[in-house]
Amino acid sequence: MPSLCFRWFLPVFLLLLSLSCGYGAEEAAVVQESHAAGRAGTLTGVNPNPSSSLPVTEQTLQGLKRIPAQNNALQMLLSSMENKSLGFISSIESLKTEALREISNSREIENRLCNNQGREHLFSVTFTLMGITIFSLFILLILRLFFDKKMKLKMCSNPVQGFGVINVFILRIILNVFSLGVYFGIFFILLLVAFPGSGPERIMGSIFFIGLTYALILQIFAKILLAPDSPEVRPVPLTDAAASSLYRWLMAMTWLAAVLGVFSMILEHVGGAAALGTILHASAGITISLLLCAMILFNRRRVVEAMPTIASTHSLQSLLVRHWHYPALAYALFLGVFWSIRALTVKESLVRLVLGIFLIPVCIGLDLWGRKLLEMASRDERVSFSLNGDADDAGAALSRTAFQPLPKKQGIKEYYPVVHKMLRVVLIVFPVFFMFKIWGVNIPMGWLFARDLLGILFVGVACLLIWEIISIRIDRHLQEELALSGANLEEMDEGGGAGGSRKATLLVLLRKFLMAVLVIMGTLMALSALGVDIAPLIAGAGVIGLAIGFGAQTLVKDILSGIFFLIDDAFRVGDYVETGSAKGTVERISLRSMRLRHPRGMIYTVPFGGLKILQNFSRDYIITKLDFRIRYDADIEKIRKVIKRVNKEIQANEELKGGMLSDIKSNGVRGMEDSAMILRVKFKTVPGRQFVTRKEVYRRIQEAFHKNGIEFAHRNVTVYLPPEVQSILAMSDGPKNAAGSAISGAAAAVLLDEEEKARIAAAAADKAKAPED
Fold first, then answer.
1. In CATH, which of 1.10.540.10, 3.40.50.2000, 3.30.70.100, 3.30.450.20 is domain 622-707?
2. pTM (two decimals)
3. What range(s) does the Mechanosensitive ion channel MscS domain occupy (predicted)?
């Protein structure tokens, strides 16, 4: 804050002084050129002023050449100032004479105001306008109280933080504009009903309506910016006492200007007293200037206390901090007096006075806001995520890492001092040229150059700030969405994982789209600021886009298909999908294709136009069904109770119950084979959690079966011997053993043959499946 005074008041005053001198020199040069043209006309025989012509000799010309150019320019400047002063005095004398004449004819002014119907009619019109005003303001007050109550309830339930202040700021503007529109409509309709004609009553009502509307608009913006009753949504860094005090002073100046402006316009346009109206209108400058000086003096200590102390009490910054009110008072008085003087001679609008008074405070506020936005944009909050495939076998599939901070890279934080200095240069140079512009001072080359340069700088800084803020916001939401969607899984099988968030998927695409929009719009605005006609560029881009659309129909097909797939929410970043011969986790979505990461690490790039059927394994839930082979003599009811106990154990596990969407249920016997009954168990889980749950269910069921004496049915071969063989076995031990060995060998051969066939079939199946995986 102390450096703020030094960096604002001193440069602005110096620039104003230098440019005013330049402007005076320019006027002097113009006058000098006119005199030179007159002398040239005399030399060529053309006498511009015959009544005052003098013979020009060679000696006179030599004497003129010896006059220094600087003295000649100074003389022209002084001559111009003298002529303007004489013209101003003449205008004041004529205005005084006209005002005295109008005062002497005050009866005529009163008759015009009363429309020649007496004072009672004037009082009736005044009371009617007051009634319309009170009723309209009452409706406006009710709407404001209603909206303020709703806003406070919303802020109490959801505290406003960070960028939420901007959202509340925009919402308050919309609500206040809506309430002002209701007031506008009610007042206008009542005015038409009360004064249907086109007489002086309607003119007085219209003038009163316009002045009141301007005052209410300024009140709305002051209340939104200062927020004296809502410190939590106040966009400017002020205390409650300072905001309330400043709001009251601003409202006092606003209503004073409105009253003076309304009465001066009524005197001029209705009463026909142009001179009195001009004097009353010009008095607004000095009156508002004095009121502004009173505000500065009243708050001088508060401003000094709000500024931090300077170590060196003899420095220029410390001097400006302690005596900041002196240049502020000088500026306010000069501006008010200068405006009043101009208003006496030419028709000056009160808008120029308001802009001139509050231009520097507004620029200081913009500097504070720009610094705040730069600080918000330079915060290191970016995050990134990656979906890395693991090249292990089918049991170890995709590895996925959570959001982690990006490595330090160059961003706006490194350019913060440069951007801040550029912003300050813009906010120092802009008010100077803008001040000359609103006061009608013509500086063509300097203004054009500064306007183009400032326009390009403003576009570049604004685009950079907008991109950094958008990028940080999107990254923050991506981090939240990935955390909520369970992106920290360490293992996923080939069936996929829990999938990603639709919001996160769209945010990634939105960031790319907004970056392209900012680059294109920034380039076009910069070219427009330089004076380049961008209409042919836009038309040419449209023709080129049409040609590309006809020549690249496949590309257009891919883009449009991708748009409709995203609208249908067919897949998201992080989903495990399968389409045709490609399957894997969606790792990235671009404008025309998506990239899939296979569980074994391979990458598939699939254009959207080639997607015919897409199977998504990461939506809503996954139902897992497990088959067990049990012996025919097993107790089915006992097995059901065992599985029920296993379900209770799984549900009691804190790590597993979060992924369970249903109980583990036994579906009973679903089939019978030669040597076993097929028992089915099923359960429902969150996508991606079925593999961990499945392994745990297998383990616990095996342990429970073993503990309860339930045997799994193994594959075996039953050999039935004919009676003669049985009689042989009933003989002696030796032959019996030999026959038994032979029979056992035959049975073993059969079993080995079946196992060999099964192994060959499994190898063939793996070989057929290898190209797919």
1. 3.30.70.100
2. 0.50
3. 554-617
